[in-house]
């Protein structure tokens, strides 16, 4: 009668261990996601190996040559060989996660024109994502469906897709571009984030960071000597 009991205990322990491992793999807190993060319920995001938080809108020209007030020769803002859009674009927020199998979930907000007569809104564009790994050419493009997803008038979009070809793991020096499906120029770039830096915390203006060596409360700093 005791033999089944002895067998039952290891089985229960094994089941508990498996349950704990599954919970850790799908727990947003364990993956560094805040509980109220819009991606916290997405398995591809929870199991992400690459994270991008925040975005940089494109400025078509990166620099001008010479010292004159007006440069006649400029350098276009190419990133990993990809041409920039012809007009300035801005993005209010970008949150993207890439899993080990190359699945991407990306939420963008406020990807709109930053200049021209249609400034402040999108005008019917569709976008796709490209991931680059490695800082040295030749660069391999890992892209989602080139047909892209449409931007709303306010420049919002969601991309849930897989990169083709699948990116390597680990992906060194990652660069994520949001690109125009019409001509494949880039509109915005993601800002890579360390896995465990969550959430974004900005100290309030009225609460400055502490001083490294503050003076004791009962020994305030001496007043400077009066000028003669």
UniProtKB/TrEMBL annotation:
Keywords: Signal. Residues 201-228 have a biased composition (Pro residues). The keyword Signal applies. Residues 192-228 are annotated as: Disordered. Residues 1-24 form the signal peptide. This is Uncharacterized protein. It comes from Metapseudomonas resinovorans.
């Amino acid at each position: 009668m005791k033999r089944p009991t002895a067998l039952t205990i290891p089985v229960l322990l094994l089941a508990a261990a498996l349950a704990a491992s599954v919970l850790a793999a799908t727990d947003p807190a364990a993956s560094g996601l805040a509980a109220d993060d819009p991606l916290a319920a997405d398995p591809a995001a929870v199991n992400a190996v690459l994270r991008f938080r925040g975005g940089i809108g494109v400025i078509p020209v990166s620099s001008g040559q010479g010292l004159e007030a007006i440069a006649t020769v400029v350098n276009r803002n190419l990133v990993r060989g990809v041409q920039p859009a012809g007009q300035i674009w801005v993005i209010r927020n970008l949150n993207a996660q890439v899993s080990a199998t190359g699945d991407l979930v990306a939420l963008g907000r406020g990807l709109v024109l930053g200049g021209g007569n249609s400034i402040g809104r999108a005008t019917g564009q569709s976008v796709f994502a490209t991931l680059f790994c490695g800082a040295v050419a030749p660069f391999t493009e890992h892209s989602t469906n080139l047909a892209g997803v449409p931007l709303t008038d306010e420049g919002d979009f969601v991309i849930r897709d897989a990169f083709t070809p699948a990116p390597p793991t680990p992906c060194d020096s990652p660069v994520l571009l949001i690109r125009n499906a019409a001509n494949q120029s880039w509109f915005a770039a993601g800002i890579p984030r360390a896995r465990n830096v969550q959430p974004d915390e900005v100290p309030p203006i009225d609460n400055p960071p502490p001083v490294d060596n503050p003076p004791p409360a009962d020994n305030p700093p001496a007043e400077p000597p009066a000028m003669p």
